[in-house]
Design brief:
CATH topology of the largest domain: TIM Barrel
Number of helices: 20
Strand order of the largest sheet: 8-9-11-12-13-14-15-16
Strand content: 15-25%
CATH architecture of the largest domain: Alpha-Beta Barrel
Shape: elongated
Helix content: 40-55%
Number of strands: 17
Structural class: alpha/beta
Largest sheet: 8 strands, mixed, barrel
Length: 530
């Protein structure tokens, strides 16, 4: 609903000005009556003739002329003052309008939204109403490609379509390409959804902007008053959460807020807070899972696994920990702290064992990554040749050229690079063949296909062949049975890890495990020798 600016105010005298005017008029009438009663004009004529040398008649004429001119001047000043007051009142009206409306589209703004919301919520309606936030999909690309003038014209067309679609309902612009609508013209959620979906379909239609056919869409998040909250701030937050979920799952959609969504967001917020506190108070730790060389059965190295134990949440899953650190912008600090712990532990292992550590996509885009790694290795005393860094193929292809340069620097320093969860991402084999990887870690989903009906084994065998074609060692993750280990060894897979070879161990359990393996190997050698 677009509110038109108020008409310019009509000029009117103030009560004080009216009282002053009446007073001066009465005073003038009284003076005139007194002069007439005293026959003052005749007296003045006689007096002027008696004293003609004083030139009183010319003086009176001059005074009359000056008085007339004074009246003219006063009238002009009153007219100018009247115009100035009108202009000032009009400017104040325009300022009030601009304070409550968007300058570009003329729609109400956030201040008007609050006033309209307060009016609706205080009316004690029998039925609820629907607060909707919508955000345009693809608007930034249009703005960048065609310029801000075209973007502004597009926003004008969007606002026009929203007004047509929602009719008497309240439509406002919050900021940028974000709009809000209060739907109060329908009685049920189904009717509200239908109305909003029609608006979404209308916005998807091409828009003619300065001889250009542009197309955008919009994602809608909806919160219901009073079911989802009775305060505007709470409803805005919940509608925004629904919008955020719609953006992540399916753009150009209509999402209603749900309590489950709120619980998910709250749980994620608690994990993020736990990560911050864990980073600050040293609650982050690493555990290790053995990586076995299939031909010999000996442990070749360990993969570091992130762990966090929070006093309130308990043990936080590694996936949740890393995802929360990335959302909070703490992944660089978290990874550096975990890597230093892992490197200090690995420095105490036998020299032939390597440490495998996962890099997140955000770390891979860090231009100071190599320098950070070198500082950690220097502080921990671990040789660069014993560190193997794991990256996912999807992360590599986000910026393949930058990743290629980073890998070249890492390899020049003696570190190794492996591809994690190979086969599970969106591979571009033509692009990946240009890289030099030390190891391809095959996703556990393919390992679980061993011995199962279907083409899973054929695909896994193809991945092993691909590793050989790229001149890289293959490592199969998720090995849980002797049959899986035997199948992999027969087909040339060099390394494997999984619960069949050993569970994830805390740092203090690694060295005892290695000693047990060494003692078992010595006993087996003595038996063979005897």
């Amino acid at each position: 609903m677009r509110v038109k600016p108020a008409a310019p105010p009509r000029f009117s005298f103030s009560p004080q000005a009216r009282r002053d005017s009446v007073g001066f008029l009465l005073l003038g009438l009284c003076l005139t009556a007194s002069l007439l009663w005293l026959d003052s004009f005749d007296w003045f004529v006689r007096f002027a003739m008696t004293h003609e040398h004083w030139e009183l008649d010319e003086l009176a004429t001059a005074l009359c002329v000056m008085g007339g001119l004074g009246y003219v001047f006063a009238w002009r000043r009153i007219t100018e003052l009247r115009g100035e007051i009108l202009r000032r009142e009009q400017a104040e009206g325009e300022a009030r309008h601009l304070a409550s409306h968007d300058a570009l589209t003329g729609l109400p703004n956030r201040r008007s939204l609050r006033a309209h919301f307060d009016a609706l919520s205080s009316a004690r309606r029998q039925s609820g109403f629907y607060l909707t936030i919508l955000d345009l999909d693809g608007f930034k690309a249009i703005n960048d490609l065609h310029g801000h003038a075209i973007g502004d014209a597009l926003l004008l067309e969007v606002s026009r379509r929203l007004e047509l679609c929602f009719g008497a309902d309240f439509v406002c612009r919050l900021a940028g390409d974000e709009f809000a609508v209060i739907v109060s013209s329908v009685e049920s959620e189904a009717a509200a959804r239908s109305l909003i979906e029609r608006a979404a379909a209308a916005l998807q239609q091409p828009m003619q902007v300065e001889a250009r056919a542009l197309q955008v869409s919009a994602t809608f998040g909806v919160a219901v008053w009073p079911a989802d909250g009775q305060q505007l701030s709470l409803l805005l937050r919940r509608a925004d959460l629904a919008l955020y979920q719609g953006k992540n799952l399916s753009r150009s959609s209509v999402r209603f807020f749900s309590a489950e969504l709120d619980q998910q967001i709250e749980a994620r917020s608690r994990v993020e807070a736990a990560v911050r506190e864990g980073l600050r108070h040293g609650r982050l730790s690493v555990h290790f899972q053995p990586i076995v060389e299939l031909a010999s059965g000996r442990i070749a190295g360990f993969e570091a696994m992130a762990r966090l134990h929070d006093p309130e949440l308990g043990s936080v899953a590694p996936e949740s920990l890393i995802a929360a650190a990335e959302r909070a912008g703490l992944i660089v600090q978290v990874a550096e702290q975990l890597l230093e712990q892992a490197c200090r532990a690995a420095a105490a292992w036998p020299d032939e064992l390597f440490l495998s550590f996962n890099l997140s996509p955000m770390q891979l885009r860090d231009r100071l990554l190599v320098e950070r790694l070198l500082r950690v290795l220097e502080r921990s005393g671990l040789a660069p040749t014993r560190l193997e860094l794991e990256v996912t193929e999807t992360a590599i292809l986000l910026d393949a050229d930058e990743a290629e340069q980073t890998f070249a620097r890492l390899r020049a320093l003696g570190m190794r690079v492996s591809v994690d969860d190979f086969g599970a991402g969106y591979s571009s084999l033509g692009r990946l063949q240009g890289f030099r990887f030390d190891k391809l870690k095959i996703d556990p989903a393919f390992t679980q296909a061993i011995g199962q009906p279907g083409r899973g084994e054929d695909i896994l065998e193809g991945l092993l062949g691909l590793a050989r074609g790229l001149n890289s060692d293959a490592l199969a993750e998720g090995v849980e049975t002797p049959a899986q280990a035997h199948w992999l060894m027969q087909r040339g897979c060099r390394y494997a890890q999984g619960y069949f070879f050993g569970e994830v161990l805390p740092e203090e359990a690694v060295l005892p495990m290695l000693r047990e393996q060494t003692q078992a190997a010595d006993v087996a050698w003595q038996r063979e020798a005897s």
